[in-house]
Specification:
The chain has 2 domains: 271 residues, Single-stranded right-handed beta-helix, Pectin lyase-like (Pectate Lyase C-like), CATH 2.160.20.10; 236 residues, Glycosyltransferase (Alpha/alpha barrel), CATH 1.50.10.20. The protein is 23% helix and 22% strand. The protein has 15 helices and 41 strands. α2 links the parallel β1 and β2.
Length: 692
């Protein structure tokens, strides 16, 4: 029976794998964390391969989070994941720290390569060190044993962190992969004399020089996401004049002012049919000023063809392909041309059928991970590349329950670079919570991955003062202000608090987020304490928005003047009351805030919609006497505590009836927001809290 089964498997593989038929000792190996494959560890599977080979050996990796640092010294090895969004390889490693204890880079990356004819496919490969350190902008201090000139170093989130580092590798294929780090040199395929590196349908993310091939490289249909403003791409072609890096049909985006590229040595860049984000700096690819021009043997070699930027093309990337050596026609520029006819990576195919592989693995039944939630699927579509979600597209509120046509889905996907991600009106925080719940219900790991990407967005969006603005990375108009308005900042902090505590449905979020969230929350609380308004030396409450640099109250929209808020202050206080061991500063802030809310209450009135047939909406919104009611104004003038109102002309008024009808009936100028806080929540907290 076993002989028959092995024969069936061999026949199936000969049909599904377009590499030479694999003998029994070279059959496809399956890695599965649940124990249903040949190995539970990827490195163990690699180690099991014979040292010598002349054809590709396939290791199929089932979905899971593999916290492994991989070393591949053997040739003809293919690592093929089940799904690039669900097959995750991750470590946390700073190159600066590694080199203080090790004399070379062997082991500095998530995947370390010395073998050749390597294929990486359908994988997410992350070095999380920089993301983990975002909450500590001052960095960490280390004792550098191997650096006698600089024995004490500071390592920051933007330092070098490699997801992939190759050494003597000559041929490398990376297809349909995500390679991520926050710092520099994320993707480092290095062999300046003979390296040929092929990337297709990949997303690469990092800091300075995060895509930095040495030798020959071809990237097609790839997306590059840049942190910082030094350079995204880099090339070293200093050993052989023909060496080049070609980027065809690629997309570039990043933080505001990111620069396209630079080089330190002789380099040769070809960029064809590429798309650049509007916030890319108007800065050509440049020679690093620290490298003298007279060391460049072959001059500046940077060639463009049919590249565009939606907001307008910069003059420096105008077509100049005719100046390239031999003036190749655009259609001739391919991977085979790039590698001077020596190698055609397109012909190397390792696609396999994941239900077959060894005599141990039978065709599985539908797995729980295939569960589908239609709302969650739409959330995946709308998630922006930066990690957050929009609240509206073209002034139309996003409706996740709506069934989208194929054309609409394509349009949404194509808009992923739009910088409209926000935490306003519960956007992003709502999606994170929903997707985490959808993952619990369906076990679809794509939902969990999207929720975790949303959490990373919240961590990234915290500004230097410890606050959150309404939008990130869009900083236009009032969108850069620290925003308590509509509970935006508090909603973000509550999500991070629940990730930290593994509570309220967020226990499935990767626990490596916990220490980062804890630090970010500490900074957020510090920001809250610093922004509490003080009048005549006495703490009061909070404004709805603040300047992110000066921490001074500011106007947001024309009718939202700088003022003390009777609404937003409530949830700020509630958040502070959840701190388990509050400092005296936190206690003082809570007591002062509640005291102020109690002082400014308006007794004997309620806020109602009163019939008014002569008006456009057939009603008016007014304050009327009611001995049994108490209300609070949305905004109070700082210093006088008078209720404050404004229309779209931003003129200050003390009577809501004095502003225009559209604003009078289109905004919540009065409410009962603090009532429960003052009557029940604060007394309960006070009774349990020491230090009062």
């Amino acid at each position: 029976m076993r002989a028959v089964l092995n024969h069936i498997v061999a026949v199936f593989l000969s049909l599904c794998v377009t590499v030479p038929a694999l003998p029994a000792q070279d059959r496809m190996i399956v890695v599965d964390q649940s124990g249903k494959g040949d190995f539970t560890s990827i490195q163990e599977a690699i180690n099991s391969l014979p040292d010598a080979a002349v054809k590709q050996r396939v290791i199929f990796i089932r979905n899971g989070v593999y916290r492994e640092k991989l070393f591949i010294e053997k040739d003809f090895v293919s690592l093929v994941g089940e799904d690039k969004n669900r097959t995750l390889l991750t470590i946390s490693q700073a190159r600066d720290i590694w080199r203080c204890e090790n004399r070379d880079d062997w082991g500095v990356a998530t995947i370390n390569l010395k073998g050749s004819d390597i294929v990486l496919e359908n994988l997410s490969i992350t070095n999380s060190f920089g993301f983990d350190l975002l909450a500590k902008p001052e960095g960490i201090h280390i004792d550098c044993k191997l650096d006698s000139l600089n024995p004490f170093k500071t390592v920051t989130a933007s330092g070098h962190q490699m997801a992939l580092r190759s050494f003597a590798t000559t041929r490398l294929i990376v297809r349909n992969c995500i390679l991520r780090a926050y710092g520099g040199d994320t993707v480092s395929p290095w062999n300046v004399e003979a390296g040929m590196f092929y990337f297709k349908d990949c997303l690469m993310e990092g800091g300075v020089d995060f895509y930095c091939p040495r030798g020959w490289a071809y990237a097609e249909n790839c997306e590059f996401v840049a942190h910082g403003n030094v350079a995204a791409i880099w090339h070293d072609g200093s050993k052989i004049e023909d060496a080049k890096t070609v980027l065809n049909h690629c997309v570039f985006r990043g933080e505001n002012g990111f620069k396209l590229g630079r080089y330190h040595r002789d380099a040769q860049f070809y960029l064809l049919n590429c798309s650049f984000a509007d916030n890319m700096a108007n800065a050509p690819i440049y020679l690093n000023p620290s490298n003298p021009q007279n060391l460049i043997q072959w001059g500046q070699r940077i060639y463009y063809y049919n590249n565009h930027r939606k907001a307008g093309d910069y003059p420096w990337f105008a077509d100049n392909l005719g100046k390239a050596p031999g003036s190749p026609a655009p259609a001739q520029i391919s991977a085979l041309w790039t590698f001077a006819g020596k190698w055609d990576p397109v012909s190397v195919v390792t696609h396999i059928d994941p239900v077959v592989g060894t005599s141990k693995v039978a065709t599985p039944k539908a797995a729980p991970s295939s569960g589908i939630d239609p709302v969650a699927e739409n959330m995946l579509l709308y998630q922006r590349a930066v990690g957050g979600w929009p609240k509206a597209v073209n002034e139309t509120k996003v409706d996740y329950a709506r069934v989208l046509s194929d054309a609409e889905k394509k349009a949404v996907r194509n808009d992923s670079l739009h910088k409209d991600a926000t935490i306003d009106n519960n956007a992003t925080t709502k999606e994170i919570r929903y997707l985490a719940n959808a993952y619990r219900q369906t076990k679809n790991t794509a939902y969990l991955a999207a929720a975790e990407k949303g959490v990373r967005y919240l961590l990234l969006a915290q500004n230097a003062a410890g606050g959150w603005s309404q939008y990130y990375p869009d900083s236009s108009l009032y969108r850069s202000q620290i925003t308590f308005n509509d509970n935006a900042m508090i909603n973000a902090m509550e999500v991070l608090e629940d990730v930290r505590d593994g509570s309220k449905g967020l226990a499935a979020i990767d626990r490596s987020f916990v220490p980062v969230c804890a630090k970010v929350i500490e900074r957020g609380i510090r920001c809250i304490l610093l922004t509490q308004l003080k009048v005549n030396g006495r703490l009061t409450a909070w404004c709805a928005q603040y300047n992110a640099r000066t921490l001074q109250p500011e106007m947001a929209r024309k009718f939202e003047l700088a003022s003390t808020s009777g609404a937003e202050s409530v949830n700020i206080i509630r958040f502070l009351m959840r701190v388990k061991q509050p400092s005296q500063n936190i206690i003082d802030a809570i007591v002062a805030g509640v005291s102020w809310l109690d002082r400014v209450k308006i007794t004997g009135y309620r806020y109602v919609d009163q019939p008014a047939p002569e008006l456009p909406k057939k009603f008016d919104r007014v304050l009327v006497p009611d001995a049994a009611s108490t209300v609070w104004a949305r905004f109070y003038e700082i210093g006088t505590d008078k209720p404050l109102f404004a229309g779209r002309d931003s003129q200050k008024h003390y009577n809501v009836a004095e502003i225009e009808y559209e604003r009078r009936t289109g905004y919540a100028w009065y409410g009962t927001w603090p009532e429960k806080l003052i009557k029940t929540e604060f007394p309960t907290w006070k009774a349990k809290t020491k230090g009062l």
